[in-house]
Structure formats: structure tokens, C-alpha cells
Amino acid sequence: MNLVFFHAHPDDEAIATGGVMAMAAAAGHRVTVVFATRGEHGEPVEGVLNDGEVLADRREVEARAAGELLGASRVEFLGYTDSGMMGEPTNDERGSFWTAPVPEAAAKLAALLEEESADLLTVYDDHGGYGHPDHIQVHRVGVAAAVQAGVEKVFQSTINRTAIMRNFEAMVAANPEAEIPEFDDEFGTDESAITHAVDVLSVIDLKRRALTVHASQVAPDSMFLAMDDDTFAQAFGTEWFIELNTTREASAPFQTAIF
Prior knowledge:
This protein has 259 residues and is of the alpha/beta class. It has 8 helices and 7 strands, in the order βαβαβαβαβαβαααβ. It has one domain (2-243): LmbE-like (Rossmann fold), CATH 3.40.50.10320. It has helices at residues 12-26, 55-70, 102-115, 133-149, 161-174, 204-213, 223-226, 229-236, and strands spanning 2-7, 30-37, 74-80, 120-124, 153-158, 196-199, 238-243.
């Protein structure tokens, strides 16, 4: 089976789908990762870049190394520029992914899907997980490219907002001084709309190692790497997806595999 994972910026792949990528590769499937941008507007970890080193160049190197670690056979970039967070002036800069005509970008991705004889494509949900313009555009472009290339299996990577709220409620129950953050509707997806919950604990160490490869973005004391192993496994040991054009009955269990 040929699986293509479409992401906005380097490090997104490790966070959102690194486990499924590693499991698919280990099972003998071909894994391709496509990035819309090289993450030009990321915030580099202090002291990581060499003198004169361009962030986008470093992030491309990191993306290729993380892809190799996770078992990807191919890592490609569509050539657009990181749009920055929603509402920033960089959204509208020439060449940004956010301003790219969807048919144009979809044609580029569709060509890669056809080259790979892709059986399955992952994108993000329609609000990009948390409202980032490049993530929203990944959804729009990916869905259009799948239609153009005839890829029938499309899975939208998402965040289980309901599960996160349950975890915070448990924390408050154990520690009344803890606070539950407020999440708007752009953050994650209600559990009722999610179709697949993939247990990636068998490769959780690889997923964490892939995050460390993205050293320009993920500092050792970052939220991701400061967690102990058990907490990291609880937070990132399940990867959540919504299969496009599919719903799950309220009483039905999650499906547990996308390939």
C-alpha cells in the first residue's frame, strides 16, 4: 500500500502522524511525506542555528532526517512559503501557501499522488486543527488533489478536544487549584465527529525521537520533550483521524487502523 502524508510545515508530521507513518513503514508499506512549506516563519530555538544559516534550510534538513527515522521512502516540498499565524501580514505575502490558488497547488500535489500510485492520503480537518492558515489550506488542497488523482481513502488528522478536556478535568479533580483552559471551536474536534483512533504506543519512542530531530523548533525544555515518558505516551500515544465522507454512529467504537 502507498501512503502519502501531506503536512504544512516540518515537525507537523512527527506530532500529528509520526506514529502511523512509522507503523506503516514497519509493516512494509511505502510512506511518502509532502510538505507545503519549509516553515520559513517558525521561531528557531535559541542557539541552534549556525551563523548565517537560513531557518528554512535547517528545517528541510530536519524534515528529511525525521522522515528517514520514521521510515519514509520519499520527502517532498511543494515550494510554497510559510504563511505565519492567522491574521499576520505574512498571510498575504506573495508565494505564501495561504494565497496559493487551490487548483494550482492541488495539481502539484495530485502529480505526486499519481507518481506514487497513492492508495491513501492524510490531510488535516477543515479548520486545520487549530485555525492555522497553512493547515486549513492543507485540507483544501489535499481534498481537491485526492479527487483529481483518484485517491479514494482520505483521512483528516485532528485533535480529540473531548479527550483533552477529560484529562484536564481529571487533573482538577486531583488538584482543585489546577485550571482548565478554554478552547474555541477551532481547536480540535469533538470526539463524536472522529472516526478513527490509532494506538501508536508500539512506536512511541520513534515518534519522540523524530520530534528531537526537529531541534530548530522543539527545544529540550519544550512542552513535548519536557514530559516524562509516561505522560508523553498518554498525550501522543493515540493519533486521531476523521475519514472523509464518513461518520461514526454515537454508540459505535472508533476504528483503530487507517491502513
